[in-house]
Specification:
53 residues
Length: 53
């Protein structure tokens, strides 16, 4: 993982490129996870604070 942080200073191989692409593709899933957890824990909308009916 250390080499993946230092990409500008090292040659990039296919496995390094692939794992970086996978992590980039998970960005939306990880952002949506906060709303999912808020719904499970509090039972309300994360943006408005109003409970779901």
């Amino acid at each position: 993982m250390y080499v993946r942080i230092l990409f500008p200073y090292y040659d990039v191989s296919f496995p390094d490129f692939w794992i970086a692409d996978q992590l980039n593709s998970l960005a939306i899933v990880l952002l949506d996870m906060q709303y999912f957890i808020c719904y499970l824990v509090y039972g309300q909308n994360a943006t408005t604070g109003k409970p779901y009916s």
